[in-house]
Amino acid sequence: MRILIYGGSFNPPHLGHIRSVQTAAAALAPDRTLLIPANFPPHKPLPEGTPVPLHRFAMTKLAAGEIPGCEASEIELCREGPSYTADTLRQLHEMYPGAELVFLMGTDMLLTVEGWYAPEVIMALARLAVFARETGREGEIETQAARLRERYGASVTVLAGQPVTVSSTEVRSLLPRRQGREYLTEDVYGYIIRHRLYGAKPELAWLRERAYVCLKPTRVEHVRGTEAMARALAERWGADPEDAAEAAILHDCTKKADRDGQLRICEKYDIIPDKWELENEELLHAKTGAAFAAAEFGAPGPIADAIRWHTTGRPDMTLLEQIVFLADAIEEHRKPYPALEAIRKAAFSDLDAAVELCARRTVEYVRSRGLPLHPDTARTREFYLKKLEDRGAAPIPWDGP
Ligand code: DGI
Ligand code: FE
Ligand code: FE
Predict the structure, then answer these.
(1) In this structure, which residue's CA is closest to atom 4 in ligand 1?
(2) 311: CA distance to ligand 1 center in Å?
(3) Residues, Cβ < 5 Å to ion ligand 3
(4) Pairing, β 100-106 against β 32-37
């Protein structure tokens, strides 16, 4: 049995790792391949903000799932102290007596392997397979391989193939800028976003694709319109347009669920519906949407809160909350209703007045249909009315019927 072994920080595992393993697997046809995340890499300490081992292991498992015969191994994560390769190989040698161990490394590692802990053990227990990290150093690599064969009796195979240029450092720096997805597998990217590892924020095109499948097809246009309006309002009022877009994309993500569906989501996320929500389950999608967006897409607090309050509003909303509350009500595809044009206009000139009028309009609408008014809607309206009064500003006159 031949076992291909690939150790590393996998912080995060990316397509460069996968390509290296695929190159090696194609050349060596191993029976099994093990990806082994290091607990404490001895030569390169993990940078600050590195996800806990549980996360790195979970990501490595997802990456391994892309390669036939490949699995993630926790033997280094379960071991205390520096994660020395020599110790790992000794352990694997005991676990798989008689197996041929092939240790995969980049050319940069081959040049430094003599400085590792117990290099003679490494080279006695495993054959080394080396993939290119850069071009132009082939001569140096061959010289080093010859040297290791001579000095340690090492078996060294230099693999043919394009150099792998992806680096974890680069991926980590792209993720907070809503970039970097192209260097990761879909599963690993989804995991990183769900847990917001590395300060990652989702690429909005990816988020749209994922969020729209949760919607009734007829609602997609409304959500697109809400996103455009939220961006415009964010630009007008100095909020982050991409955060506003993210909240808007997700704001109705559970709207499709009927009463039973809403109650199931409530159960799942420990949401206790209040009596108004039980009477009119339409109100619940704000709470369930916030919980779903946080759990499935890692929506951080301020974004989840904007979703939470988008239907009723609340007193003293954050800027992002006001933006999503208004964008939902005035986006370009909204069917005309009394006061719509007045709210649209005010949203770009006086945010307090716009929120007050929007809440007032909901109060009118709910009353006219004989529905129970949610106290949060009433409180929103009262708060912003008072705020206008305190400023000495008049509320916008009602222009509808
Ligand atoms: O989800 P959308 O349709 O895009 O918009 P939304 O989240 O603002 O939901 C609007 C619905 O919520 C609308 O049918 C009116 C209802 N609504 C908003 N505030 C209240 C309310 N219903 C009641 N009963 N009480 C409220 O205070
Ligand atoms: Fe909604
Ligand atoms: Fe909406």
Answers:
(1) 328
(2) 5
(3) 252, 328
(4) unpaired
CATH code 3.40.50.720 for 2-172:
no
Mean pLDDT of successive 10-residue stretches along the chain, which has 401 residues: 96 95 96 97 89 96 97 96 96 96 94 95 96 84 95 94 85 98 97 98 98 97 98 98 98 98 98 96 97 98 98 98 98 95 97 98 95 96 98 89 64
Please report, as a single letter, which amino acid is at residue 152.
Answer: Y
Question: What is the C-alpha to C-alpha distance for residues 62 and 17, in angstroms, rounded to an integer?
Answer: 12
- Cite the DSSP H helix spans in 74-167: 85-95, 107-112, 119-125, 138-152
Contacts of 231 (CB under 8 A, 6+ apart): 241, 244, 245, 248
**What is the Cα–Cα distance from 287 to 80, expressed in whole angstroms?**
43
227 vs 96: CA distance, rounded Å: 55
- For the 202-391 domain, the top CATH level (class) is mainly alpha
pTM exceeds cut of 0.90: yes
- What are the structural domain ranges in the chain? 2-172, 202-391
188 vs 232: CA distance, rounded Å: 32
Structure tokens at 143: 């010289």
